[in-house]
Amino acid sequence: MMKQKKPIYFVLYLLAGVCTLSGCIEEYEADIPDEESHLLVVEGTICSSQLNVFYLSRTQGLNTTYASGREWGAKVSVRGSDGTEFNAQQHYDWGIESYHGNDLGHMPMVTNGGYTCWIDTLYPDVEYYLHIEVDGDVYESVPQKPLPTEKLVEVRGVQNTPESNINVLVTPEAPINPERTNYYSWTFDETWEVHSDYTTTLFFDIATMKCIHKLNQFPERGWKDGFSKTIMVGASHNYEGQHIKGFKIYDIDRSNERMFHKYSGLVHQRAITKAEYEYELARRQAGTEMGGLFTPQPSALPSNIHCLTSPNKRVIGFVGCSMNTSERRFFLHAKDFSIYRPPRRDTRWWLEDCTLEDCKNMVEKGMFLCEWLDERMSSPNGQLRTAWAFEYQLDVRSKGAYIEEPEFWNMEEREGHEDK
Description:
single chain, mainly beta, five-stranded mixed sheet, elongated
């Protein structure tokens, strides 16, 4: 199941670059005119056989006194031309910590005013739309038949030169309709392995005043999760047979910790209409022109949502309708690429000509023994040298990692997909 879009707020910035053809767009601040403030913003996709999440917010100018753009207390439902109706319930923040070790792509993030409803099945001959009642007005998206999505047959990482970043490329299955341009959007979840700064199998026992071996004192290996902050879109018009092949959706810096050991991504692919594609491109333009003279105002962005009770009231957003999404998990291994690990100095505490009493003092300071280099027995002038580290240098959890191995971690790239 495809993870839902995150909400877009207009607190101090306008449409902060959530769409790009091949990379990320940085957020920027824009002073929104008064006439552009307090416009309803709607985000979400109607999709079959999954939990649908819709976000409502409001545009806000720099001088607003509101804490956020969240819109509470609305009545939201998905309706069909056959009379079906799926009522959405408002949800608040769900923590994601309890989902560590699982396929996070199957856990929609519902935060900051999300409205959720489960839809079992959408039918190809029925048109569906989003219905919203809020602040005495009624809004609806343009009815659409659910659009089927081709399978995602390949996701791979490519490094063009030893100094370049690792590009993530996708290839959908041959298009259902090769006679017309096909449009897609992609998002992704990611998981990567991290290690502690230092490891140790030594322990200084102050009861016996001896160095002993002690295994598994600290978790040295863990994992972190991330979610795409952008929506990538692409069109097939420049590809032979309208079949996209090897399309770059994002890249990973070769000096980023995500590539130091092992990395896994779960890519979500959804076929979209030309109108939704153009909406995402317009958002990208609004994010890249940095509030310039010709930057479109929020209300100038294309939208398929209208206010039925006040036809002149403008709305921002686009609600797509999909029969399914396609997913594919892939893995990248550091050994297969030219990875750059920035040099770092040894930050452990070294004691030269160390005594046992010195070791006891280090333990009482909360430090742990890492090195025990004893030359006292082999040389008349031999000394004892020791190295010490704090717990945060030895426990990978101090890096924000969790230690429950993800269930998919030792699987090779899955043959096939999990189509929803």
